[in-house]
Specification:
The complex is a heterodimer of chains A (441) and B (53). Chain A is mainly α. Chain A is 72% helix and 1% strand. Classes of the chains: A mainly alpha (441), B mainly alpha (53). Chain A: This is Maltose/maltodextrin transport system permease protein.
């Protein structure tokens, strides 16, 4: 035992002392300035931040216990607790606590390392040398720390908040702060989404359409883009730049404006499309009142919006394909379709597969297209707060901004997050285009 | 070399391709035409209903 301890006696003692109180290990290792600074930090945190931290945590756990008091006339007598502000404050304190724990762990690690140096018979560094050493060794970490802290509060905080909402009853009309308190309800909202027919019907219906929509939107634009890229790449086409510029125009106009125009163009009563149909003796199509035609119109309009991107991208890929490949294939007797299938398509797929997958994830959340074009309509009586063309993200919008069902929206958001994150991870891990290896299958 | 040579069927291909391109160009330009008209009309609540009416 003595032999075991002998080797690391200062290291262990230093680490243990720093674990008891920040800076003690450093003082033990005769790094007085550093030890004092660490100790001052802990004292500062203990004196000034322990009470707000405990209150913050209490708020996060209870979500408030003072209900707003109102007189018979409705004037506020006592404001009461605001559960959502308490929750956000609690999360902020929890994140700050984690940062403090990280600094605490650094302090222990530092005391251990300096102790280990002493065990080897080396002299511990003085304060100036320690600063220089940290600057030299941890330069990247020092530079990254501000952005990490920034990301913690701008990305992680809203994410945690959004997830936690799913475990509360934060919803109208009975649980909306500051008038009412919000409570933790565990997985109740998750089970409601599955058990209650009104919710599960809506969720399943909207989910199925979201998947169909994402697939259709992705593949129709992808293959239309490919078609036009091939067309423009054909040797008989003159003024290629002119055609390319013309076809890329939908990309140049702000989508919101074009979508509102399309909304009017497809208008059942006075939209030009129905007027032209009537003019040639056909019946007017109920674009926005029939679910099938509404979905059809969305997909068609989306092709208009989406194909220029793929066309531009694939035109670039096509011009980069080595012409000798085609010459060799032609000498071997390959026909036009065979050359396309065996040379053009694999090379294009190889270059665009990661973008294709990300496009699917993007369309899965294509709020603008749905909300600005059909607003989710036509109405569907068997759905809760969703229309026939609503996708999950536009349903979430309606649940939150129109119906105040924040908890249910949060559950659906978690589901979307899992799907989109899954696709993204799969994309980055599996797509061969990201690997520097031979692309031959 | 291969690019510049004319082949049998090129004329038909050119006809078909130009036809598709012209039809597509109309389909692309037409909604944009309404965007411009809407802007010129200066309607507040969406340009098209006013134009059509």
């Amino acid at each position: 035992m003595v032999v075991l301890l002998n080797g690391k006696v200062h290291a262990r003692a230093g680490a243990l002392l720093s674990l008891l109180f920040m800076g003690l290990g450093q003082i033990y290792n005769r790094q007085f300035v550093k030890g004092l600074l660490y100790a001052l930090l802990e004292l500062y945190v203990l004196f000034f931040w322990s009470k707000p931290f405990v209150e913050g945590m209490r708020g996060l756990i209870t979500l408030g216990d003072k209900v707003q008091q109102r007189s018979a006339r409705g004037t506020i007598i006592e404001q009461g607790d605001h559960s959502i502000i308490l929750m956000i404050t609690g999360i902020i304190f929890a994140l700050l606590f984690l940062l403090f724990i990280a600094v605490y762990a650094l302090n222990i690690r530092d005391a251990y390392k300096v102790g280990a140096m002493r065990d080897k018979g080396e002299k511990p560094r003085n304060f100036a040398a320690s600063i220089a050493h940290a600057w030299e060794q941890g330069f990247a970490y020092i530079l990254l720390t501000p952005s990490f802290v920034f990301a913690l509060f701008t990305i992680v905080l809203p994410l945690i908040f959004g997830i936690l909402i799913a475990f509360t009853n934060y919803s109208g009309p009975n649980h909306l702060p500051p008038k009412n308190l919000v409570d933790w309800v565990g997985f109740e909202t998750f089970t409601s989404l599955i058990q209650f027919r009104a919710w599960s019907n809506t969720f399943l219906g909207v989910l199925i359409w979201t998947i169909i929509w994402a697939l259709l939107a992705t593949f129709t634009t992808y293959f239309t883009g490919l078609f036009y890229a091939l067309l423009l790449n054909h040797r008989v086409v003159k003024f290629k730049k002119f055609w390319r510029t013309l076809l890329i125009l939908p990309w140049a106009v702000p989508g919101v404006i074009s979508l509102l125009i399309f909304r009017n163009m497809f208008n059942g009563e006075f939209g030009p499309i129905n007027q032209y149909l009537k003019m040639i003796g056909l019946q007017a199509i109920p674009w926005f009142s029939d679910p099938f035609w509404a979905k059809f119109a969305i997909v068609v309009v989306n092709i208009w919006f989406g194909f220029p991107y793929w066309m531009a991208l694939m035109s670039g890929v096509l011009t980069n394909i080595d012409k000798e490949l085609y010459e060799a294939a032609e000498i071997d007797g390959a026909g036009g379709f065979q050359r396309f299938r065996s040379i053009t398509l694999p090379l294009i797929l190889f270059s665009t597969a990661p973008l294709l997958i990300m496009s699917f994830a993007n369309n899965f959340n294509n709020f603008n297209m749905i909300y600005l074009f059909t607003s989710g309509g036509p109405a569907n009586p068997s759905y809760s707060y969703a229309g026939s063309t609503d996708i999950l993200i536009s349903w979430i919008y309606k649940l939150t901004l129109e119906q105040n069902k924040f908890n249910m929206a949060s559950v659906v958001s978690i589901f979307i997050f899992i799907v989109v994150a899954g696709f993204s991870i799969w994309n980055f891990r599996r797509t061969r285009a990201f690997k520097e290896e031979d692309m031959v299958a | 070399m291969m690019q510049s040579s004319t082949r049998p069927g090129d004329k038909l291909a050119a006809w078909v391709i130009y036809l598709i391109l012209i039809v597509t160009a109309i389909a692309v330009i037409y909604p944009l035409y309404w965007v411009v008209l809407g802007a010129l009309n200066g309607a507040d609540a969406g340009p098209l209903p006013r134009i059509v009416q």
